[in-house]
Amino acid sequence: MNEIARQTKAASCPICGKATDVAFKPFCAKRCSDIDLNRWLTGVYAVPVKDDEDEDGTRPADGDEGDRS
Ligand SMILES: [Zn+2]
Q1: What tens digit of pLDDT does each residue of 42-56 get?
Q2: Closest to 23 measured CA to CA, from 40, 39, 32, 5
């Protein structure tokens, strides 16, 4: 019956577990929002790019397919 109770029960920050702030949904503060953004940025983009590009431009996938068991 209380609207405030309804909102506080809605969600909690996925980073630190505090109550979500409407301004930074679904996080409690900009700091936690940044932390989450940084997590998937470094996890998805920064890591694979280094290993994926060869300096010589050679592709290991070429002619390597017949070696699979
Ligand atoms: Zn938080």
Answers
A1: 876 555 555 555 666
A2: 32
